Amino acid sequence: MEILSKILIAVVAAEHVSILYMEMFAWETLGKKTFKGALKEELFKPTKGLAANQGLYNGFLAAGLIWSLLISDAAWSSNIALFFLGCVSIAGIYGAFSASRKIFFVQALPAILALVVLLLK
């Protein structure tokens, strides 16, 4: 269970690193592909700064999850992972209500699954 927990935490962290990249550095290319239909094409350029700010926050979430994997004390590592997975879950649930239901499945569900496995280990 411990290995599965760490794998799931790493997957959620990797997802947030990829979100950071898209929102901070590829908003007008990958962002357009990812959010095709959700945003009008002409809105990507003027929202580039806003997207970069969101990307930075996703980077902080990824950093916290990666940090949790590097902590040698099991209790401390679990507590840090629980906190950051909780943040990701809440952000994903909020995004599902405020922007798109798809966010729940892409962002919140993997974090919730990682949380459950972490709590069961």
Architecture blueprint of SSEs:
Elements: H1 2-25, H2 30-34, H3 48-70, H4 74-98, H5 102-120
Helix pairs in contact: 1-3, 1-5, 3-4, 4-5
Task: List the main descriptive attributes of the protein structure presented here.
mainly alpha, 5 helices
Quickly describe the structure:
This protein is mainly α and 121 residues long. The protein is 79% helix and 0% strand.
What does this structure look like?
With 121 residues, this protein is an all-alpha fold. The chain has one domain. 79% of the residues lie in helices and 0% in strands. The chain has helices at residues 2-25, 30-34, 48-70, 74-98, 102-120. The longest helix is centred in the C-terminal third of the chain and has 25 residues, at 74-98.
Shape, please? elongated
Note the beta-strand portion. under 5%
Distance between the termini: 5 Å
Main sheet?
none
Unreliable spans: none
Helix percent reads over 70%
The average pLDDT score comes to 95
Helix-strand topology string: HHHHH
Write down the domain tally.
Answer: 1
Question: Would you report the number of β strands?
Answer: 0
What does the radius of gyration come to? 15 Å
Tally of alpha and pi helices: 5
Which structural class do the helices and strands define? mainly alpha
